[in-house]
Amino acid sequence: MDRLDDIDRRIVAELRSDGRITVNDLAARIGLSASPTLRRMRRLEADGVIRGYRADVDPDAIDRGFSVWVTARLAVGDPDAQLAFEAGLRALDAVTEAHHVTGDVDYLIRVDVADLAAYDHVIRNELASLPGQAHITSYVVTSTAIERR
User: Fold this and answer.
1) In this model, does residue 2 exceed pLDDT 80?
2) Strand partners, 67
3) What is the pTM for the complete model shown?
4) pLDDT for 61-94, tens place per residue?
5) What domains, with CATH codes, occur in the chain?
C-alpha cells in the first residue's frame, strides 16, 4: 500500500463522518468526479485502509448501554498464557474490545451489557474464570466525554 495522499485522506475523513454517503456526494465534497472517487474508494478498501462500514447503533436499544472498562493482569506473562486468555475473551459476547497494553496491567477490556446486574454476572461467571488471570479491576463508565470511531 502506498502512502495516502491528501485526496485519500479527505475520502477517509468524509466516510468516517458519513459512511452512507453516495459516491456522487462524496466526489462533490472532495472535488473529483465519481469514477476516480469510486476507484480510490475501492483501492482503499482493497489495501485495508477502509476495513468496513458499520451502523452506529444506540447501545441502550440493544441492551448494551452499561459500559465497564476492565483491567486484567495475568499470573504469568508467557505467550501461551496470553493466547489462552485472549481466546477466552473472544468467546465472551459482552466483551466488545480488548487491548494488550504496557504498564501495570496486561489487558484493557471493554464490556458492554444492559445494566449492573448483567455486569455482575459477567464478572463472576465469565471474566473471573478466564485462564491465566491473576487480578481484575473494573471501572464503570458514568458518562462519555469523547467517542471517535
Assistant:
1) no
2) 112
3) 0.84
4) 999 999 999 999 999 988 999 999 999 999 999 9
5) 6-46 (1.10.10.10), 59-140 (3.30.70.920)
DSSP letter at 19 equals T
Longest dimension (CA), the chain: 57
d(CA 17, CA 45): 17
How far is Cα 28 from Cα 24, in angstroms, rounded to an integer?
6
Residue range 42-68, pLDDT digits in tens: 999 999 999 999 998 999 999 999 999
Secondary structure of residue 96 in the 3-state scheme = strand
Q: How many CB atoms lie within 10 A of CB 149?
A: 5
Provide the CA 65 distance to its chain's centre, in angstroms. Answer: 15
Separation between Cα atoms, residue 94 and residue 136, nearest integer Å: 16
Residue 42's Cα: distance from chain center in Å?
23
For the packed helices 34-46 and 23-30, what is the interaxial angle rounded to 10 degrees? 100
